[in-house]
Amino acid sequence: MTKNTLKLPIYLDYQATTPLDPRVLDAMMPYLTEHFGNPHSVEHSFGWRAEGAVEAARKQVASLIGASEDEIIFTSGATESNNLALKGVAFAHPPAKNHIITVKTEHECVLASARALEGMGFTVTYLDVCSDGLIDLDELASAINDKTSLVSVMAVNNEIGVSQDLGVIGALCRERGVLFHTDAAQAVGKIPLNVDEMNIDVMSISGHKIYGPKGIGAIYVRKGTSILPLLDGGGQEQGMRSGTLAPAQCVGLGKACGIAAQDMEGDEEHIRALSLKLLNAIKSKLNNVRLNGSDDCRFWGNLNLTFDGVKSDLLVADLKDIAVSTGSACSSATQKSSYVLEAIGHTREEVDASIRIGIGRMTTEEEIDYAAQHIIKCVQNLS
Ligand SMILES: Cc1ncc(COP(=O)(O)O)c(C=O)c1O
């Protein structure tokens, strides 16, 4: 007889955040306890020890994306990295280069940064997406003009999981002489990324989306790229991000990147298999379900589904033992309707009938079987 190991509630919200990988916690612990030194203390071994750990972590982050370690700046997370990417690049350019391009389905922190720049006199083009969630490359090409300094297009969308063709976008930006930033918070460690092969100049990274700790992230800045710091202070991180680094957090991000480099293929296979299992189980019993976003260009750890005729807030409430969401954690905090689903052409009713299911490294087959049964039952009850 097999032992029932299912533990409730089941976490299926991996885009909001991921559990800390136990290997990451092990790596962090010494830097929360005996190795507590300030990594910027240059006169004694406590400082050197912490600095050594931070620099080793920087190498692990760099190596995952094909960068060199002096191109990695630690930040508090992708929100800060995205603010620095957009504002820092915009501020570093002369007034004649006051135009940036981004996409309507970017994370709120990119869009809010872009709107803040508009308030300061910059011009911003917000590209539409097609019904599959992908941008039209011709539209991007024609939006670039003599005034454009930066194109910012996210790698994997946090609400619907579609992945943009970074290689093609990067090549276009390079050819047209504009910088290319990508918010890769949902992509790093999940899909292969290489800053040189993809001509990426600036990239945002978040620790807690890749089984690392919250409160730490990084920004990759290609050597020679002008970017103005947003924080004034002690000049740490090559002057780009003042403030004392948190060694345990840096070590955690580094370890999470190291693990991702090793486990990416296995994780991807595991996640894709579970995701397809769940999707097929649901589709086999319900005919009012649709997967949102491209079938082909996607990270399978994100299933955003519309159940026609079902109110998703009631569905999420009925799925008591299963943690899923009706949208991004940020927009659920403000109870705003999903602008991402609206951008792919959903009506208000369709937006309100959609849920996001996030599958990750720690998800088990047993959890997926349980989730499938319960989702089907609850949707049937609400239909
Ligand atoms: C695509 C994307 N960008 C940026 C962020 C913000 O990341 P952080 O929580 O590290 O500030 C998130 C988190 O929800 C995200 O999904």
Structure explained in plain terms:
The protein has about 375 residues and is an alpha/beta fold. The protein folds into two domains: about 10-20 and about 265-380, Aspartate Aminotransferase, domain 1 (Alpha-Beta Complex); about 20-260, Aspartate Aminotransferase, domain 2, CATH 3.40.640. About 40% of the residues lie in helices and about 15% in strands. It has helices at about 20-30, 45-65, 80-90, 110-120, 135-145, 165-175, 245-285, 310-320, 330-335, 340-345, 350, 365-380; strands at about 10, 70-75, 100-105, 125, 150, 180-185, 200-205, 215-220, 290, 300-305, 320-325, 355-360. The chain has a seven-stranded mixed sheet, sandwiched between helices. It has a three-stranded antiparallel sheet with strand order 9-10-12. The protein has a two-stranded parallel sheet with strand order 1-11. β3 (about 100-105), α4 (about 110-120) and β4 (about 125) form a beta-alpha-beta unit. α1 (about 20-30) runs antiparallel to α7, α3 (about 80-90) packs parallel to α4 and α7 (about 245-285) crosses α12 (about 365-380). The protein is globular and about 65 Å long. The two termini are about 35 Å apart. The mean pLDDT is about 95. The structure holds pyridoxal-5'-phosphate.
Number of domains: 2
Provide the CATH topology of the largest domain: Aspartate Aminotransferase, domain 2
Proportion of helical residues: 40-55%
Radius of gyration: 21 Å
Q: Could you say which structural class the secondary elements and strand pairing correspond to? A: alpha/beta
CATH architecture of the largest domain: 3-Layer(aba) Sandwich
Q: Given the C-alpha coordinates, what overall shape results?
A: globular
Q: What percentage of the residues does DSSP assign to strands (E)?
A: 5-15%
Biggest sheet: strands side by side, in what order? 2-8-7-6-5-3-4
Ligands, ions, cofactors:
pyridoxal-5'-phosphate
Low-confidence stretches: none
- DSSP helical segment count: 12
N- and C-termini, Cα separation: 37 Å
Could you give me the name of the CATH homologous superfamily of the largest domain?
Type I PLP-dependent aspartate aminotransferase-like (Major domain)
- Output the helix-strand order: EHHEHEHEHEHEEEHEEHEHHHEH
Mean pLDDT: 96
